[in-house]
């Protein structure tokens, strides 16, 4: 494979002065799991099953594997029907792959957060409804025309007050949690 001098300078691969890397040496730079992809796509071009291929693989350069993209096509030799030259453009896509991975991680975190939010809202709606139902029920009993004794009405009022305190505590806990997560000052 012939590469321009800049490839050798960027990758740290030894340049023999002719800017050529033998294919067996070049293949040794590949991440082992990427060789099958390279071989398959190069063979598509060599067998003329496709005119061009975009091959993405990891190459061991500068003491680590980096993602590179090779856009490869062929140029026919009009004098020989069986001879052609591979021609291509290669570039490091490591930054793109890192950004892609960071976006995937962020997406996974967002999806997890969305699931947790849904579970939280489901639990909170249940926790809030329970005391509210008691408050509404006993308030309706107090305002109904039924004859309840003063002792029964006192029990209703006590129950309403207890449920109001439970509801207030629950709402304060939610607000405290919101303050903690948003970084606002919090007084435990």
Structural features, described:
The chain is of the alpha+beta class and 188 residues long. It is 57% helix and 17% strand. The protein contains five helices and three strands. The chain has a three-stranded antiparallel β-sheet, with helices on both faces. The longest helix has 50 residues. It is rod-shaped, with a radius of gyration of 35 Å. The two termini are 67 Å apart. 5% of the residues are buried. The mean pLDDT is 86.
Describe the protein's topology.
Blueprint lengths: L4 H7 L11 H6 L6 H12 L5 E10 L2 E13 L7 E9 L1 H50 L6 H33 L6
Antiparallel strand pairs: 1-2, 2-3
Defining traits:
188 residues; alpha+beta; three-stranded antiparallel sheet; rod-shaped
Q: From the helix content, strand content and strand pairing, which structural class follows? A: alpha+beta
Strand order of the largest sheet: 1-2-3
Could you tell me the number of beta strands? 3
Low-confidence stretches: none
> Averaged pLDDT, please?
86
What is the strand content?
15-25%
Order of helices and strands: HHHEEEHH
By DSSP (H or I, 4+ residues per run), the number of helices equals: 5
Helicity level:
55-70%
End-to-end separation? 67 Å
What gyration radius follows from the Cα positions, in whole Å?
35 Å
The 3D shape can be described as rod-shaped
Brief rundown of the structure:
This protein is of the alpha+beta class and 188 residues long.
